Structures are given as C-alpha cells and as structure tokens.
Amino acid sequence: MPPKRKTTPAINLIAGGTAGLCEAICCHPLDTIKVRMQLSTRKALPGVRKMGFFATGVNIARKESIFGLYKGLGAVITGIVPKMAIRFSSFEFFKSALADKTTNKTSSTGIFFAGLAAGTAEAILVVTPTDVIKIRLQAQHHSMADPLDVPKYRNAAHAAFTIVREEGISALYRGVILTSLRQATNQAVNFTAYTEIKAYLKSIQPQYQELPSYQHMIIGLISGALGPLSNAPIDTIKTRMQKEPAIEGESAFGRVSRISKHLMQREGFFAFYKGITPRVMRVAPGQAVTFAVYEQVSKSLEQVPLLNGHQSVLTAED
Fold first, then answer.
1. CA–CA–CA angle 154, 155, 157 (5° rounding)
2. What pTM did the predictor assign?
3. Buried (b) or exposed (e) across 121-155, using 16+ Cβ within 10 A?
4. Which of 62-71, 146-155, 223-232 has the lowest mean pLDDT?
C-alpha cells in the first residue's frame, strides 16, 4: 500500500472551507431552531405541551418566512473558512507535536488533547465573535418577507458594527470561555471518535485503501452526535449570555452564575438541555457532511502537485 500524503495548510484551507460551507448551508435552519428553543423562557400553560423542534421550525417559517430559518447564516459563512482551516491545521500541528518521537504515531490520548487544543484555537480566533453575531440575528423575531418590518440588526456586518458601537469590541467575545469549553470538548470527542471508528472499520475492511464516502458520513454522524450530548448545559448558558448585553460591573463568572441560577430556579434542570434535539440533529449531520466533503475534496486536491503532502490529517494510526 503506498504511503499516504500529508495534507498541507492550503489543502486544509480549501477542503475545510468547502466542507464547512456545505455543512452550513445544509444544516443552518436546525441551528436557528436550537437557538430559539434555548432562548425561550416561557413555560407551557397547564395542559399545553411546549413546542418541540419541529413545531418551533414551523412557527418560525410561518411567522417570519422560510428565510427566517437562515438568519445569521452570513455570519456563519464569513467565519467558516478560517474556522475549518484553523480546526484541521491546528489539529494536525498538535497531533504531530504529541506523536511518539520514535514511531511518529499519536495515541488516542494524544488525539483527544489535540482535539481539545484545536477546538480552543478555533473558539478564540473565530467561533466566539461569529457566534455572538449569529445569535443576535437569530434572536430577532421579524418577518424577512415584510420589507417594512425592519430589525435592529440588518445583516452580519451591520450587527457586528452595531454591537461594537453600542457595547464595545469586547462584546464580540462575550462567552469566550464557555465557547472555548464547548468547542474544545466537541473537537476532542469528535476527532477521537472519528479516528478510532475509522481505524476499526479499516482494520475489518482491508480491501479498502480509503473508506467509501458513505462510511465517512456514518462515522461523522456518530462522532458528531457525541459532543453535543456531553456539553449541552455549556452551550445553553453560552447562548443566553451572548444574546443579552453585559450588565455594568458584573464579571463573566457572575453572568454564568446568574444565568445558571435563573435557569435552575425558574425553568428547572432540563432547561439546561433546551434545544438538545435540534443541536444533535444540527451537529451530527453537520459533521457527517464536513468529514465526507473534507475527505473527498482533500483526496482530490492531493493530486494537485502544488498542494500535495505526505499523509492525511485524518488518517487513523495503526
């Protein structure tokens, strides 16, 4: 079997950006539904069931048009190329740094910590500010089909400008610690599960030099579902924090404590898991699309002489 080639930063940028763009377009409506469910503070009336993810989606489409499900997409697309480039490039860097110096192989523990570091890097550099902008846009209850219904934030660029003008540039980094925790745990679990499952499937299917795309999608679906299940409370608190302006004199820890206490006392323990269904339905297929597209595009780009390297960033260690 010929040695696999290493993806270069250029391949990470193009393949990762393409994968992220496909993932965002396919799955963004589910993220909007998740955000609305997390921001909902109303309790259902006696005998009336709370709206689930499907009913929430229908309600948004009916009142705000189908395009309401794509609120905040501009902010996501703006950050998707650098986010994916940082994710895959930093993961490869940390994976190599944690590899055994004699065998050049990285253990499962090393993969886990490389994922933690990659998730933290993307959260600080890209995800936090785009999340703040996206959530502000998604939280607006206005009809995109009515030109007279003018929202406070017209688009991603206007939202960024307005937030910085009214609240200062630090507002774009509100919730950065929680976002880092979410992204770090997501990518640690994601990359570890993906690598281990991929290695197992290759071991029982020696006829494949590279697994078929549908298997990459299945692995991505499984690994993508594990992260949200492990850190749902973090994501819910982060969403509430990023939606509201800062209270003067209140520390980040104070905001987390206040929001957590409010959720527990007024809405109950399960409020921390609001939006978990659409989040899993958003992240899991999103990771399925991301890994499948990334593997396919990077494989094609490896044939380009100016871009190729020596070994795939997602190649499982034997």
1. 120
2. 0.70
3. bbbbebbbbbbbbbbbbbbbebebeeeeeebebeb
4. 146-155
